[in-house]
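Weekly modeling sync, notes
Attendees: S.R. (lead), two postdocs, one rotation student

Agenda item 3: backlog of single-chain predictions. S.R. asked that every request posted to the team notebook include the full sequence so nobody has to chase files. The rotation student volunteered to paste the first one in as an example of the format we agreed on. Action items at the bottom.

Example entry:
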Amino acid sequence: MMKDATLKAVTTTQVYIGHWANTRVEKMRSRRDRGQGAIEYVGITILVVAIVVAVMNTKMGESIANKFKEKIDEVLNGG
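Predicted structure, as returned to the notebook:
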């Protein structure tokens, strides 16, 4: 069983995070930033490119690239 102090801490944290999340959602719904979406897409794109570059510089990246090439060849050659 959890000790009372641990249970109280967990419960307080859950309530705090739930309240914070609800507050953030309300603020996001009420904001009028139209250009913010484009900046977020650029950030996500940069993150994805960084992950792809990191994976491609490993042996796992080579393996993934080879599998993609095989599947593309299958599709192009009626495979």
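Discussion: group reviewed the output briefly. Residues 4-30 form the longest helix (27 residues).
Action items: rotation student to repeat for the remaining queue; S.R. to check formatting next week.
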